[in-house]
Amino acid sequence: MARILVTGSANGLGAIVAKRLVANGHSVVLHARNAQRAQDATSACPGAETVVTGDLSSISETKHLAEEVNKLGALDCIIHNAGLFRGGYRETSDGIPALAAVNTLAPYILTCLVDRPKRLVFLSSEMHRSGDASMEDILWTQRGERRWSDTTAYCNSKLHNVLFAKAFARQWPDVKSNALDPGWVATKMGGSGAPGSIEAAVQSYVLLAEGTEPAAQKSGKYIRPGKKEDRPKAGADDEKIQDRLLAICAEFTGLKLS
C-alpha cells in the first residue's frame, strides 16, 4: 500500500483518481484550497485518509500547506494535479497571476518543502508544445495584465511542469519524477465536449502513483493517456533551460532545493 497526496482533488480528475487509488487499497491524502472545498473533497472520496487545505495561489499558504503535509508523515508519492486555465489575470497578494502561482510556483514550493517522497508526478498537457522555452518573464511581472493571455500562460506553465519533472529526476536520482499528460477530457476544466478518455487518463495517473509496473520505474519521462510514453517538446531535455526555471522559482520564493 502506498501513501499518496493528490493536490486539487476536490473535483475533476483529481477526485476521480483519488477514488481509484483508495479502491486499489492505497492511503490517499486529499487537498483543497479552503474548508468548503475540503468538505467537497471528503464527500467525493469518503475513503481517503485525510484532507489538507491551502490556497496554492498564495506563496505563504503553500508553504504552510507543506508544513501540514510533513506533520502527517512520509509519503510515497505526490501528484501535483492542481491547476488553473481560464479565468483572466487575477493578480495574487504576491503580485503575480494566480495561474502562474498555482501551475508553476506551487509544485516547486511543495517539492522543495515536503519531505522527499519516492515518486513525483507533475501534470502537464499536450499544450505544453506551444510553451515558450526562453524562460523570459515566466511569472508575468513585466508583461502584466495588459498583455495577459490565458492560453499563452497555460501552455507555458505546462511546459514548466515537464521541465520540473526532468530537473528533479536529474537532481534526485533516488526519486522517480515524471510528467503526465492526462489528455483533453470532459471535466470542469476540459469542458463537456472534450473527446479524451477519462479511463485512459486515470490509468496513467495510477501507473505513476503506484510505481509498481516496469514503465513506472523510469524517471524524467512524459506519459500520455493509456500508460503511453511519448517525447515532449524539443528542448525539454535542455539542462540549462531546466536550471533557469529552477533559479527563477528559487529567487521569487526564497526557496532552494536541498
UniProtKB/TrEMBL annotation:
Gene Ontology terms for molecular function = oxidoreductase activity
UniProt keyword rRNA-binding present: no
Alphabetically sorted, this entry's keywords are: Oxidoreductase
Family the entry assigns:
Belongs to the short-chain dehydrogenases/reductases (SDR) family.
Q: Name one Pfam family in it.
A: adh_short
- The Basic and acidic residues compositionally biased stretches are 226-238
Residue numbers spanned by region Disordered:
216-238
Q: Which InterPro entries match?
A: NAD(P)-bd_dom_sf, SDR_fam
From the record, give the transmembrane residue ranges.
none
Source organism superkingdom: Eukaryota
Task: Name it.
Answer: NAD(P)-binding protein
